[in-house]
Design brief:
This protein has six helices and eleven strands. It is of the alpha+beta class. The chain is globular, with a radius of gyration of 23 Å.
């Protein structure tokens, strides 16, 4: 009986370590990573959100330095939008709620109509949303306003379209997209079932909100992944 026990222990010592090594290295090498969206800069660095400095609903300055070290989801809207904006706000609130336990996560909603959308107007809009059972948590969600030219310029780096348009509902044209930004200010994205890079997420579609929630979790896990170091022999 003692010999059998010894043989079993010996077999475990010989077999288990290779299995563990195979499992660990396979998981490491096949770790899911989101795509980095956008063409690289002339210096070879990844595309990042351009410099901005805007103010939020509390008249606080929000800029690139504010967001550094945070993952965030951004969109463009306006408070008097009669069509898709309330849906976008509702869906952003959904994402915020689903990811409420995660640290270093923020949300930015940029107005495309800064002449109307002042910090005071933002607070009124947020109250209107709450009256419609849309809970906006301002602890990590900033509604941004500023100079129109500055907002429209930074929108380009998010790969969204914004412009005044007398024919559009409410007088402004803007994309319905949500954009996922990593801690370095890069646009990140998952891929669809056909292997195509999504780039952005449709803020009016519930199914894409679920995809976005999952992709934020993937991005969070990416930062938890141990850095691979070169071995010295």
């Amino acid at each position: 009986m003692k010999n059998i026990t010894t043989l079993i222990l010996l077999a475990l010592l010989l077999v288990v370590p290779p299995i563990i090594y195979s499992y660990v290295t396979k998981g490491y090498n096949n770790f899911i990573k989101l795509e980095v969206v956008g063409e690289k800069k002339d210096n070879g660095e990844d595309h990042t959100i351009s410099e901005f400095s805007l103010v939020n609903q509390h008249n606080e300055v929000i800029n690139n330095d504010t967001m550094l070290g945070n993952i965030y989801v951004a969109d463009f809207f306006f408070t008097t939008c009669p069509t898709i904006c309330p849906v976008m706000t509702k869906n952003m609130a959904y994402i915020q709620d689903k990811l409420s336990v995660y640290p270093n996560l923020r949300f930015l909603s940029h107005t495309v109509n800064p002449e109307t959308d002042t910090p005071k107007r933002f607070l009124e809009y947020i109250e209107e949303m709450k009256q419609n059972n849309i809970d906006v948590d301002l602890s990590n969600w900033d509604f941004l306003t500023g100079k129109k030219d500055d907002i429209y310029e930074v929108a380009k780096s998010y790969f969204v379209n914004v412009s005044p348009d007398s024919l559009a509902p409410g007088g402004f044209l803007h994309s319905e997209y949500f954009i996922l930004i990593d801690k370095e200010g890069r646009v990140r994205s998952g891929i669809d079932k056909n292997g195509n890079v999504l780039g952005v997420y449709d803020g009016t579609k519930e199914v894409q909100m679920k995809d976005l929630v999952n992709d934020v979790k993937v991005l969070m896990a990416e930062y938890k992944r141990p850095k691979k170091t070169k071995r010295k022999w």
